[in-house]
Design brief:
The structure is a single chain. The chain has about 500 residues and is mostly beta strands. It folds into 2 domains: about 300 residues, 3-Layer(aba) Sandwich (Extracellular Endonuclease, Chain A); about 170 residues, Galactose-binding domain-like (Jelly Rolls, Sandwich). It has 6 helices and 28 strands. A hairpin with a 7-residue loop joins strand 11 and strand 12. It starts with 15 loop residues before the first helix and ends with a strand.
């Protein structure tokens, strides 16, 4: 039986229905590898880690202010230095508690927001070594003495800060059911690599005489330990290259990992090695199989990547200044294509982050490169269970002296223009890595509707040009096998 590789999953299926939904998205038997049970070639995938949890204890009937309350019950790997603060009227209560209303509800104590715009802050959560995070919290809304009213998107607003509260980022959350009573809401988001502490702010936004209650706040890691903190090997994910190359200034780079939720399960989306100075990615790595392909349309949701500061990104809402309608200028060239993530709208939107764009010659982007993405990469999904893809942009080759030129974003800031692009691919069927190939294409005024074999190289050859070690989590034997191959017949869409 064929197997699909999804080691990035961080949620355990609790019903057979969830398993059936995931399987129905794939034409082959799915291999949903739970992090606590499976191993990659470099070690066990760690289970999800609870960084912070607060159940709010057992407040007295005197309803103390949250600013003076001392009965906190905080736990987790990053909870030791946590403090709390409030804005407006926020008290601790036990009335209308959450006991038995959602999975894990502790009941007893809860935070009570006494009016619109009241705020409850959780400060100093230690998140070092983590970038992909999941926040869950119990929330309810009541209308004076009339009992519960339905929770909706206007009940509460959630914000996070990575700079001690100097600036805040709004976070969306799911779990809104229209139920009159307590619900468990979930928010998944990323923080920049290197973030030491996180603050979370809950702001009551219900209007009128409605009041809001909060309980059971939990922050968990969304990835195995070490997944986005640099180094040569970050996990057992088979698509990953290493981070080091003689032609890359490591001091300017950061790993970015994006997760997504498909059929209610959190899976890995893609990872990047991004240069904060050049404002481009050296590579984007991701798994490709039918799970990620659906009927969602291209969203064109151009946006800053929420994982890193906007100051480190090109602003590209209107494209590059050098765009030209005659196709001689630069397009916003995707490295992970929009068409490789069509399972749902939210997942497709992540491919339009500015960190995923490079200034790609328009003629190349819209013809030859598009043919490579469609007629070779996606067409070759049918040849295996999982296709591992790394797409990259090259400013200078190893030992080369290529000139680096620059395009300009919407603010007039410089963005480095790649001299070359590459793709390297490996097919996996079952537990066998059976085929590998590379493609090397200059960023120039090229066109074509097919991919001639003259653009093909071995993965070894592209490693020599770029300085990266691709598929570094494969065994030495598997790397030696697939990275030395140049078998055109193993792939769809390549012409001799």
């Amino acid at each position: 039986m064929r197997k699909l590789d999804f080691r990035g999953i961080t949620s355990v299926f609790t019903t057979a229905i969830a398993t059936m939904l995931l399987a129905s998205a794939c034409s082959k038997t799915n291999d949903v590898i739970l992090p606590s049970a499976k191993q990659g070639s470099t070690g066990t995938r760690a289970a999800t880690t609870v960084i912070y949890n607060e159940t709010f204890g057992s407040p007295s009937t005197s309803q103390p202010s949250a600013s003076t309350y001392t009965g906190w019950v905080k736990s987790g790997t990053g909870a030791s230095s946590v403090t709390y603060s409030i804005v407006g009227t926020v008290t601790m209560r036990t009335t209308l508690n959450s006991a038995g209303t959602y999975s894990g509800a502790t009941g007893d104590g809860e935070v009570f927001f006494g009016g619109t715009s009241a705020e409850f802050h959780i400060n100093g959560i230690g998140v070092s070594g983590n970038t992909a995070l999941t926040l869950t919290f119990g929330i309810s809304q009541a209308n004076g003495g009339s009992g519960f009213v339905a929770v909706d998107a206007t009940t509460v607003q959630v914000y996070t800060s990575t700079d001690g509260g100097s600036s805040w980022t709004a976070q969306s959350f799911t779990g809104i059911t229209g139920v009159k009573g307590w619900i468990l809401a979930t928010s998944s988001f990323s923080v920049p690599s290197g973030t030491a502490t996180l603050a979370i702010k809950f702001v009551a936004s219900a209007t009128g005489s409605s009041v809001v209650r909060l309980d059971d706040v939990t922050l968990s890691s969304n990835a195995a330990t070490g997944d986005a903190v640099g180094g040569a090997v970050r996990s057992g994910w088979m698509e990953l290259p290493n981070n080091t190359s003689s032609v890359v200034n490591a001091a300017n780079t950061v790993n970015i990992i994006h997760f997504t939720t498909i059929n209610g399960v959190t899976v890995r989306n893609y990872e990047q090695l991004y240069d904060n100075t050049m404002k481009m990615c050296y590579w984007v790595a991701y798994p490709l199989c039918p799970l990620y392909i659906g009927t969602s349309d291209r969203t064109d949701a151009w946006a800053y990547d929420p994982s890193i500061p906007t100051a480190n990104q090109a602003k590209l809402s209107s494209g590059y200044a050098e765009y030209s309608s005659d196709l001689t200028g630069y397009d916003r060239g995707h490295q992970i294509p929009s068409a490789d993530r069509t399972s749902d709208v939210a997942t497709n939107k992540t491919t339009f982050y500015y960190t995923n764009m490079t200034p790609q010659v328009s003629k190349l982007n819209q013809t030859l490169w598009a043919a490579l993405e469609d007629k070779v990469v996606r067409a070759s999904m049918s040849l295996c269970d999982t296709l591992y893809v790394v797409t990259g942009a090259v400013l200078q080759t190893v030992g080369g002296n290529e000139t680096i030129t620059y395009a300009h974003d919407n603010n007039g800031a410089q963005v480095a223009v790649p001299n070359y692009y590459f793709k390297v691919l490996v097919q996996r069927t079952g537990n066998t890595y059976k085929a590998g190939i590379g493609f090397w294409i200059p960023n120039s005024f090229l066109s074509g509707s097919t991919i001639p074999s003259s653009y093909c190289k071995t993965i070894d050859q592209i490693e020599a040009l770029t300085g990266f070690n691709f598929f570094c989590n494969l065994s030495a034997a598997d790397q030696a096998n697939v990275e030395s191959q140049l078998n055109i017949s193993d792939w769809n869409g390549i012409t001799q």
